[in-house]
Amino acid sequence: MFDSIEDVQKRLGEQGYICDRSVATVVFLATRLEKPVLVEGPAGVGKTELAKVTGAALGCPLIRLQCYEGLDEAKALYEWEYSKQLLYTQILKERFSQAMEGATSVREAADRIGAEDSVFFSERFIVPRPLMRAIDSEETVLLLIDEVDKSDPEFEAFLLEILSDFQVSIPEVGTVVAKQRPVVFLTSNDAREMSDALKRRCLHLYIDFPGQEQELRILDAKVPGVDKRLAEDLVRLMHGLRELDLKKAPSISETLDWARALLALNATELDERLVQDTLNVILKYEGDIRKAQAELGRLLERKPEPPEPAKPEPAKPAPAASSAAPPAPKPAAKKGRLH
Amino acid sequence: MQKRILDFATLLRKSGVRVSVAESIDAFTALDELTLDDREVFKDALRATMVKRTMDLPTYDRLFDLYWSGFYDGLRSSFDDASAGLEAKGLDLEDLMERLKEFLENAEGMEDADLSELAKALLTQDLSQLEQMIRQAGEAADVDRIENMLQVGFFTRRILEQLGAQGAGDQLRQLLEQLRGMGLPEEELGALRELIERLMEALRASVRDFTQRELQKQNFDYIEKFRRETLLEKSFYSLTEEDIRRMREVVTRLAQKIKNILTIRRRRERKGKFDLHQTLRRNMHHGGVPFELIFKERRKDRPKLVILCDISSSVANVSRFMLLFMYSLQVAFTKIRAFVFVAELGEVTHIFNEKDIADAVDLALEGGDVINVYTRSNFGYAFHEFWKNHLSSLDKKTTVIVIGDARNNYNDPRAWCMAEIHNKAKNVIWLNPESPGAWGFGDSVMDKYLPHTDVAEEVRNLRQLSRVVDKLVL
Closest-CA residue in chain B for A193? Predict the structure, then answer.
């Protein structure tokens, strides 16, 4: 487990996940209080990633349950292996007749079979699903329940027992209590509001878009090799785009994709043409692209201000850029604050 | 500390953030795990344990500042000002304090006994001590009962009395006299006197600040809650720009709720009974041993929806929200066809499908380039048009929703069109922003249409709307 908030930040950082103190605080508390964390925020800010990375940092295996509409207990928890049970009955037919031999009445025969009942309803015939696996595991695992908001309300109710007591009751077998409490992360895109009962059992973490500086650091960590000035321009443009009223604002994963794309194209500078051509990497709706194209001139316009002092020596862009790096202010840093 | 956290939880609750008892306990346990020297960590910990809805985060942030940090910062800045003023005059405050201390130590026996806690705290500028004292005095003065601006002065005075500010000031001045008697140089005495006056002033200012914060705290929740409550009840006719913006959130939330209910209902229906027939047949090749179980599947019965919306200027605001709502509900229905009319009838379904919500509604209200909106409403003509061109699209799964006030400008109502529509459709629902008392009076022809509707409801605010929609999707 983690020793302190700084330790969380450090160890997540080692896994290539850069987070601020708020996020680290919640992760730290979650491991200390043994409470699940409900992570909310726009798509693509690294909610799922946070869970994965925490698992890696703690060295526990990750068990992931992807939620979707129609997910039920049988898929999430356990299922009786009906066919296997049948198969066994078929194979053991002989033994049954032996067992029943000498029974004088139907009742007696039925009683004898009844005594063997538990053979068929034992863990042998249970197919464990993710939740069961997480609870039944010998070592501490990280359970990621991804996109809980996609599941149905009744599934959510069923999660309650697991999240508060870390136990599952199987009518035929009894209650299975977790040997080691798993570290649980739930992620949600806010497609629907989760019930209060579920929220009460969780710590809540809202991850928003990061500030420019942090996004730069993330970019640096995830896509090494991007020219520093290009990265700055890129991040600034992304922040500008997020301020537009778009159907789907580009998030960090889009920034990374775009950086990789530009890297592949050997781009060293953001010019309008290049942006126009690659806009479909970051924006996923036709309407958004059109809106962004209209604003592109203005968004790129703002860019030349900070690198101005570097302008006189355009011949050697890379070193000039590093000297011009500090003047970049953080106008939109407030917006990207993490809650 | 515990008490203050509980108070804070109460305050959050009053402001509409739902904090359960279990959650405040979580907050305590969380704080046990942390070292509290960092305010941000403290804030994060409380937030993670007590605030679970994203929409509550801004409220939390503001209240946190009001409750925890703001006051201390204000206190510090006013005391900093006090000493900075002196330093600006070229006096070395630290030096002065050192000398004073020395002086007091030399003259034994008298000074400590004479100074009250407050006076000492003031003189040493022990701010955390001061903060605590002000809070205690505030509690003793019942400052949480403050209700309006006019009481600020009153409560400030009461807290100062509780603190014994007057006495402390006198004591400090006396001390000054004593010091003079003991031969402290006149120049330093002057500086000290000024310092004391400034400190007293800073104290008064801080207490006033404290009272004002208390007032904000008490009122904060009230304003918020009031706003939220009334939105549901407020008539569509009298919405301000700000309301409209907030309303959009409420509408989508409401639609979401209904969607949730729908999925539950549908899921319950999805799994049908055990199908013996099919099971036997499918398992023939296992020698009749039923390895595979087959269940009958029920067919999903997703309703179809046809909306006829009056967009004449008299009901434009109402129509806006109805359309907004219908748009949000789109997913719950297999097919929505939307028509708008004033006199002519035009289909705006394509706008609904292509545009995003705000644009779609705006466009639809402008007639969607298909009809002329600058005429007088004529329901009869519009229904006749529908009857002529679109009647065939109705079937027994279709619900027809008419939104309008049925003020027909004395035109022919052509109620027979409505009757035919009613015959073909599953349901006809009429949402009228006027109250039933007014139906059929003046140029209203609601009474003519009434026999041909299954449900006719007055809808002039969100609460009524949600009730109707709940009925409608059943």
Answer: B53
Architecture per CATH, domain B249-270+303-472, reads as 3-Layer(aba) Sandwich (3.40)
Q: Is-contact A163 A15, C-beta < 8 A?
A: no
Taking the Cβ of residue A334 and every Cβ of chain B, the question of whether any pair is shorter than 8 Å is answered with no
Closest Cα in chain A to B25: A200
**How many angstroms separate the CA atoms of B440 and B434, rounded?**
11
* CB-closest option in A22, A204, A287 to B356: A287
Of all helices (H) and strands (E), which one includes residue B402? Answer: strand B398-403
Reference B87, options B77, B78, B95, B75; nearest CA is B95
Contact residues on chain B for A202, CB-CB shorter than 8 A: 52
For chain A, what are the domain ranges?
A: 5-73+133-206, 78-125, 212-324
Q: Which residue among A83, A203, A247 sits closest to B49, beta carbon to beta carbon? A: A203
User: How open is the CA angle A126-A179-A48, to the nearest 5 degrees?
Assistant: 80
B31 CA to chain A: closest CA distance, Å?
9
ipTM: 0.74
* pLDDT values of chain A reduced to their tens digit, one per residue, 339 residues: 888 888 999 999 898 888 888 899 999 999 988 899 999 988 888 899 999 999 999 999 999 999 887 788 888 888 888 888 888 888 888 887 887 787 788 888 888 877 777 777 888 888 888 988 888 888 899 999 998 888 877 788 888 878 888 888 888 788 888 888 899 999 988 767 788 888 888 999 999 888 888 888 888 888 888 888 888 888 888 888 888 877 778 888 888 888 888 888 888 777 888 888 888 888 888 878 888 888 887 877 654 444 444 434 444 444 433 343 344 444 444 443 444
Q: Do A200 and B356 touch (CB under 8 A)?
A: no
Distance from CA of A241 to the nearest CA of B (A): 18
Return the beta strands (E) in A139-202 as ranges: 142-146, 167-170, 174-177, 183-188
CATH of domain A5-73+133-206: 3.40.50.300
Contact B44 A21 (CB under 8 A): yes
The Cβ of residue B42 has, within 10 Å, a number of other Cβ atoms equal to 19
Give the C-alpha separation, A218 to A214, whole Å.
6
pTM over 0.80: no
Contact check, Cβ <8 Å, A29/B30: yes
Residue A149 sits at the vertex; the CA angle it makes with A148 and A151, to the nearest 5 degrees, is 70
Q: How close A24 gets to chain B, by Cα (Å)?
A: 10
Inter-chain CB proximity B26 and A32 less than 8 Å = no
